[in-house]
Amino acid sequence: MQQKQMKSLIWFTKDLRPYDHEGLQIALKESTGVIGVYCIDIDRYSNENEFGFSQRSKFQLSLILEALAELKQGLQQLNIPLLIAEESASSCIPQIIEQHQIDQVIYQDEWCSEEQNELQLLKSKSNKTVFKSYLGQFLWHPEDVPYQLEQGELPDVFTVFRKKCEKLARVRPLIENPPMSLNCFELTSDEIPSFQSLGIEKPSPHPQSAFRFQGGYKQAKIRLQSYFFEHHHLSRYKKTRNGLLGTEYSSKFSPWLAIGAISARYIYHKIKVYEREHIKNQDTYWLAFELMWRDYFKYISLEHGNDLFKQAGIKKRHYSWSENQRLFLKWINGQTGDSFVDANMIELQQTGFMSNRGRQNVASYLTKDLQIDWRWGAAYFESVLLDYDVHSNWGNWQYVGGVGNDPRDRKFNTQLQAERYDPKQEFQKLWLKH
Questions:
Q1: Which of 76, 86, 143, 292 would you label with 301, given CA atoms 20 to 30 Å apart?
Q2: How would CATH label the architecture of 2-136?
Q3: Rounded to the nearest 5°, which phi and psi values hold at 125?
Q4: Is the whole-model pTM more than 0.90?
């Protein structure tokens, strides 16, 4: 019972939901007082990285602000206040720890160098505080996969990983929140900031965007309910997933997954419910299959660390990459002369979203046709994607760029791809008129 006197701070990052949340469960079990904190590091939206792009997407920030509003409401039902700081975690959290005499900080573990550097700086300023992490991003928890990751056992090929995990690993059940009737912190949650109050230019919503949804956890659940159980698009997913126009050709879960407004486990278990209640086929399986791909890139990142960001990639392959800025800018602005590539790039620039089929084609065009350093493309995507996920983005770019996990070094024929996936040129006409 002595442990129940703990005062806990939950540091929210890419886990903006009040359910299926291990950190929340830990805090509610162990604490007499719980505070939630989210840090918006404004400098990340203006400072440039080594490739000349902002380090965060304004399109994604729009979703984050919407998700914070719903998270705030969800936490209020648990009697937990949500504080929002407009600076880095290493700057604001030590002040909150000192002000409220916090005993432990609970956070979702992130292993890439940028996040690790921030964590170590935070810990150095809070050396009397316990830091407790959990791994909440995965479909298959790292403790459950049949590989010793620290011994380099992760397969180089996704299919090998998938088949063994499907056979030997299990997807854990959803995490339940224990009740918390009292909270020793009598704090009022902060107001959700706006783009204007943050001093950041707000991107304009586009009426033709393929993602026309709000960013919160409730909205994610509404989308799933609609896509699965109301319109039964899940039963056709594999057949439609390569579409280009509209909101219904694919699940559109990736933006919510990227900010943690929905969990991979939640989606997986809902797939299983659908299969029991309606139909189980190759289409329903294929959405789970895509969640497995997402997991695989996280495990690749976990095992290979900063090689995820190096030019030679995890395969240590050295190519003579072009550094032609003029051609690169034409690619960014949809001015390459390849109408399929250009339409996809304009869609991305104006909406922050691009289909999976589009991403494969524009990445192949940049790296195989223009032979421009794949990292330039990955960094640009990082600055604009509303569903930016560090592991999936950089892992996929390595894959297409020939320095990652593709056992075949393939090149997309964008003309044939356009004929197959946009035979009436409806997608190209929509975006090339802008």
A1: 86
A2: 3-Layer(aba) Sandwich (3.40)
A3: -95, 0
A4: yes
